[in-house]
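Duplicate of #3305? Posting structure anyway:
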């Protein structure tokens, strides 16, 4: 999710620049698929019971935004796509790392079986909250900057796209909160009352994911040339 999807995004940027200006019969079907994919994959996240499947579908939803922004071929669109690709790479990797810490201790990825981990791992629960907030594009992370650029670009290209992107953003917030509540809140099962403690390396890994997301907003030109 952090590497392969970015290679696909890079390939789209290179090919789109070669096809500029886009022929309409090529542009519109890809744009429709990208926008429809945002809604479909976000909706699929709401009915997932497997934690890793939920995170994977979340990645596809965010890359739908990136694809739509690249196809428009404007400076704001490409800047938003680059920013969101970097932000998504860090956020998705952090979510998979968190899912792995849960799986190593409980040996299950089913959301209904593992609940209430906040009582046992309060610091890990804090990482869950921060990572889900970045997945929702909450300020001051670069996720928000990338999504604002992309939504503005699509709105400038076609006004009705604000409805699709708005609904997609709302569903993203819904399944991010759903993922946090299902893993951290509620009453824990009796079979998970005694679990191995978390390690310093796990907290360091998550800190190295989340710190760039918060600090890059101070100098976005590091990942996009628009503010240079």
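Output from current build:
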């Amino acid at each position: 999710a952090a590497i392969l999807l970015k290679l696909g995004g890079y390939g789209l940027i290179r090919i789109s620049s070669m096809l500029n200006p886009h022929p309409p019969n090529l542009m519109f079907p890809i744009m429709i698929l990208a926008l429809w994919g945002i809604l479909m994959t976000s909706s699929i996240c709401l009915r997932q019971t497997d934690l890793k499947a939920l995170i994977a579908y979340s990645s596809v939803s965010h890359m739908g935004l990136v694809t739509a922004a690249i196809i428009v071929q404007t400076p704001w669109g490409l800047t938003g796509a680059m920013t969101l690709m970097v932000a998504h790479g860090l956020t998705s990797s952090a979510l998979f790392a968190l899912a792995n810490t849960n799986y190593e201790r409980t040996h299950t990825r089913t959301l209904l079986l593992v609940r209430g981990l906040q009582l046992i791992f309060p610091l890990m629960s804090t990482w869950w909250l921060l990572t889900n907030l970045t997945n929702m594009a909450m300020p001051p992370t670069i996720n928000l900057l990338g999504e604002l650029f992309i939504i503005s670009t699509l709105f400038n290209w076609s006004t009705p796209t604000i409805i699709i992107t708005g609904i997609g953003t709302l569903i993203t917030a819904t399944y991010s909160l759903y993922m946090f509540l299902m893993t951290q809140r509620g009453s824990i099962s009796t079979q998970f009352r005694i679990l191995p403690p978390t390690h310093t390396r796990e907290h360091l890994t998550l800190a190295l994911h989340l710190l760039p997301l918060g600090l890059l907003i101070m100098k976005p030109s590091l990942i996009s040339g628009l503010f240079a």
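Confirmed duplicate; merging threads. The mean pLDDT is 86. Residues 3-222 form one domain.
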